[in-house]
Amino acid sequence: MSHALPPRRELPPEVRERMRATVRAGMTPRPGRALAAAAAVVLLVGGVLIGVQFLRPAAPVAGAGVDDRCWAAIESAGRTGQVPPRAEWQATGSRALGDDVVTSYLAGGKPVFCETTATTVTVSDPGAAPASAPGSRTGLLLRTGTGLVAGVADPSWPRIELSLADGLGVTVEPVTPRTGVFTAFTATDPATPLWAGMSVEGQTTRPGPRAELPPAPAPLVSVVDVPGDRSSPAGRALGECLAALPEPLDGADGYQPGGMLDNGPYRVVLARSAEHTVACVTGPAGATLHRDTFIGRSIPVRRLSVPAQGGKVPFVGLVPRSATSMDADFGTGERVAVPVANGTFGAWLPEGAKPVDPDTGDAWVRVTDARGATLYNGSVMLR
């Protein structure tokens, strides 16, 4: 069996069970089992905290005054009377994960968060008081479908750990000393309950209890302020496909076109919003939409399930937005270049494609950015 790419494997989301078993057995994870995606997480096993890496850490972003897009969204929504004057807004921090940027402010002395993506702006309500987690003064002020979580931590907490109900850690984040605010890109759905607890440097066990965070208040503003491209070839194809759907796609203007595949009368157009990935398909029978139909457990490269079109199978999905190239091993004896565009990848599976790992049924891919840095090197479900 030929492996055109280096034999390095990602650890899928069932990491909690595998790591628990590893710890119980007194073993360390096998070399090459790389976690595929970003902020530090903490797994509690037998009372011991084990640091892991899940998502690429968010980077700090320089900032001074209120972002023009944030203020313009407030103005366009007619909400300027519900916030302090712009002159009273002071940026206290900003972080980014790809094109998802969250900036924290003090506006008239109150904490406010603004999240901007390629097409959307969401601003927390400075007049809303967060509901605190039981036994603490920690509460959320903003939680969005992108996985962003932002709020105010208990004044006694130097850092905050966010975790799931079963104790699996999601991320540990610093708490801004002067304001007490925190932000985190959690990659969780807003419907997933999050728990919060204090975290301290060098801890080996949790230093205090955890408590479930109440939901965040509704945002002051959440708008699509930069409609997705509809002028490029892929943009026009996406617009035509979305317009032909039997039922309109909610928030269609916020989708940016990605890769596009053609096979005679069949066409597959990929697109991403801040929250979703879709494949819009047109053919002789009309238009159909496949939204977040992910298969397999690879992260941050994820395969979308899209049926064969005209006898060809689409190998499509999402990649980090900074990705510029993908090489794939489909078991044919040679590497295949898979086009990448706007955080998506797409190609027709070549004839004779077969899993490089018969036990899992996976293909192998390597994704790099413009500098040639590897963003992902691991398996993706082939069929």
Structural summary, described in words:
This protein is mainly beta and 383 residues long. It is built from three helices and 30 strands. The protein has helices spanning 15-24, 68-76, 233-243, and strands at 9-11, 33-35, 40-45, 48-53, 59-60, 89-97, 100-107, 110-116, 120-123, 139-143, 148-152, 159-163, 169-174, 181-185, 195-199, 211-212, 221-224, 256-263, 266-272, 277-283, 286-291, 294-295, 302-304, 314-318, 323-329, 335-338, 340-341, 344-348, 362-369, 374-381. A six-stranded antiparallel beta sheet has the order 5-6-7-8-9-17, with helices on one face. A five-stranded antiparallel beta sheet has the order 22-23-24-28-27, with no helix packed on it. A four-stranded antiparallel beta sheet has the order 13-12-15-16, with no helix packed on it. A hairpin with a 2-residue loop joins β27 (340-341) and β28 (344-348). Residues 1-57 and 60-64 have low confidence and may be disordered.
Share of helix, binned: under 10%
Extract low-pLDDT stretches: 1-57, 60-64
Q: Globular, elongated, flat, extended or rod-shaped: what is the shape?
A: globular
| Structural class label | mainly beta
The main β sheet shows up as: 6 strands, antiparallel
User: Compute the gyration radius: what is it?
Assistant: 22 Å
Strand order of the largest sheet: 5-6-7-8-9-17
Percent of sequence in beta strands: 35-45%
Topology, number of strands: 30
Compute the number of helices: 3
Average of pLDDT: 84
Separation of termini? Answer: 19 Å
